[in-house]
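User: Here's a chain of 215 residues. Predict its fold as tokens.
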Amino acid sequence: ATTDSAFIRSEINGRQSRRMVLLAFFSADLVGAFLWAAWCEQRGDGAAGGHVRAVPEAVADLAKAERAQACGAFGINRFVLILIGALVEGPVLFLAGRNPWSFWSDGLILPLWLFRLGFLDVFVWAATPQMLLGDALWFSVMAIMSRVHSLALFILVACQAVSLHLALHWGRGTDDPPRELTQVGTIGTGIAGFDFVRYGIYSVSMLLIMAAAYL
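Assistant: Prediction complete.
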């Protein structure tokens, strides 16, 4: 009887723990989404923000294009898009929190994270490696606290590594010097640059070690 009661208590605590973690994830997602929408609405689609100062036209055009891409909302009002996302994500997370011990519940959470990381961050918003690493760590922490299956965590970490290498391959927001400086052979870009070592090797190694410790 004691063993049965302990098992039931452990199952209840596990279910409540996953529900609280997923509720925290959903709340943080909403806060971040509203901050993103408010920032984009304040500056407009590609409009200059902050203090007006004289900058080269090419730099201004590049900054405008980057803001427009970061605020991409598929042609939908951003707050309406947040509402649609909440109506989709909320029920999925609720169902995933009902039974934390089944693999199908992990199969509900994993596509949400992969869609956010692999599609929105990489292809739609063109996130920098720094931002991708932050999201990767955030999703990994949520996965571990939600006690996902080891296979689900392995798939998540593998996709995180691929997304980081894609961002590095496209050279987004890296600290490598201009090509003019690299032509003399002083400091290399791409796989020879320090950003590749920092995000492509060290960060991926950190994620893999963390996943292996979880296994």
